[in-house]
Amino acid sequence: MAYQISDECIMCGACEAGCPVSAISAGEDKYVIDADTCIDCGSCEATCPVGAPKSN
Ligand code: SF4
Ligand code: SF4
What we know:
The protein is α+β, with helices and mostly antiparallel strands.
């Protein structure tokens, strides 16, 4: 399953810069992950200062 970003996201943008497949983009009130593009590498989870990206 792809990673998803929770409402804890503070829109810092760090995960977008680190995603190797550019699956992350800014949404309305949080960043969002394109499930079809995400390869489950875990980089966003490791980078995020608030632990918003979670694997399902
Ligand atoms: Fe990108 Fe990896 Fe996060 Fe998926 S788990 S959104 S591939 S950084
Ligand atoms: Fe949101 Fe975390 Fe990504 Fe920053 S690194 S944009 S807080 S999910």
